[in-house]
């Protein structure tokens, strides 16, 4: 026998949140970031195009992304601040963001572990733009490239693609007592720890 509560339950199950494929966030009064996640069918073709085009974006190994947008916002804010002071350690704003995300001081470490390469099956892209809508010609060209060599994924899929063990090792995170590795509690603490490492890096 069905009741009114059964109807409410069925309705709630059907009203699921639509997937989010893009997220735009303000970082500074004149700077925004837009996050996208892509599955790659032809990673080498995409990688070669990225190297040649010099897109205004940070291309990250999806396995090394926690999924916390605050990490990216902090790193971009730091990079923009260094750009304004003419004190960047690297030669480009996207590379400076990548360096800011890395817990290490070596640029090669940041590229090797966090950066995009031709063997990845997915890439997390952070577009850097000085207007609220990232609709420039380079962005359009990249979308056309991806139509032939991959497809966009919901941002929530990063939880399936990230490698928490690798992230823990790279950021030198010690296991929290009484919280088993990879448990939800452990993951929450790890994510907060990564954010603090990015925020406190000189």
Automatic annotation (TrEMBL):
Pfam families tied to this protein: CGI-121
A GO CC annotation given for this chain: cytosol
Gene Ontology BP annotations: tRNA threonylcarbamoyladenosine modification
Keywords: Nucleus, tRNA processing
InterPro entries reported in the protein's UniProt record: CGI121/TPRKB, CGI121/TPRKB_sf
UniProt xrefs under Gene3D superfamilies: CGI121/TPRKB
Positions with biased composition (Polar residues): 1-15
Region (Disordered): 1-20
Intracellular or extracellular location(s): Nucleus
PANTHER family registered for this protein in UniProt: CGI-121 FAMILY MEMBER, EKC_KEOPS COMPLEX SUBUNIT TPRKB
Annotated family: Belongs to the CGI121/TPRKB family.
Descriptive protein name: Uncharacterized protein
Native organism: Hypsibius exemplaris
């Amino acid at each position: 026998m069905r009741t009114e509560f059964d109807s409410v339950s069925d309705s709630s199950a059907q009203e699921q949140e639509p997937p989010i494929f893009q997220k735009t966030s303000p970082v500074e009064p004149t700077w925004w970031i837009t996050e996208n996640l892509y599955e790659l069918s032809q990673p080498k073709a995409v990688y070669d195009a990225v190297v040649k085009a010099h897109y205004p974006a940070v291309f990250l190994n999806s396995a090394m992304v926690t999924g916390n947008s605050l990490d990216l916002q902090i790193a971009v804010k730091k990079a923009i601040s260094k750009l304004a002071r003419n004190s960047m350690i690297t030669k480009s704003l996207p590379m400076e963001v990548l360096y800011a995300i890395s817990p290490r001081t070596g640029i090669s470490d940041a590229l090797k572990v966090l950066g995009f390469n031709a063997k990845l099956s997915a890439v997390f892209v952070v577009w850097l733009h000085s207007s609220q809508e990232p609709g420039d010609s380079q962005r359009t060209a990249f979308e056309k490239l991806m139509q032939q060599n991959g497809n966009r994924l919901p941002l929530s899929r990063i939880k399936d693609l990230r490698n928490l063990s690798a992230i823990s090792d790279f950021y030198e995170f010690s296991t929290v007592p009484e919280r088993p590795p990879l448990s939800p509690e452990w993951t929450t603490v790890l994510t907060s720890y990564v954010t603090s490492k990015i925020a406190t890096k000189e």
